Automatic annotation (TrEMBL):
Cited Gene3D superfamilies: Single helix bin
Protein name as catalogued: ATPase inhibitor, mitochondrial
Biological role: Inhibits the enzyme activity of ATPase.
Any GO MF annotation of the entry: ATPase inhibitor activity
Mitochondrion keyword on record: yes
InterPro entries named among the record's database cross-references: ATPase_inhibitor_mt
Length: 78
């Protein structure tokens, strides 16, 4: 037990230096970064999400314009 207590800080310091020095690299786009962006189904899904976002934004703008037009019509009628 005494040996474990004496060596624990040394082991931690060694492990931290070792872990900090390790870097992972890939050999290119074969399964690494960029493979998802090149996937056709991913592009289709992303495009569909963009289209839905734009549609919601346009619907919100139209709703606000209708409300404004109704308020203006009430002012004109009065």
């Amino acid at each position: 037990m005494l040996a474990l207590r004496l060596n624990t800080p040394t082991l931690r310091a060694t492990a931290n230096r070792t872990i900090g020095a390790i870097r992972m690299y890939t050999d290119g786009p074969s399964g690494g970064s960029g493979s998802v962006a090149q996937d056709k189904s991913w592009k289709n899904r992303e495009q569909a999400e963009e289209n839905m976002y734009v549609l919601r934004q346009e619907q919100e703008k139209l709703r606000k314009m209708r409300e404004t037009a109704e308020k203006q019509q009430k002012v004109v009628d009065d």
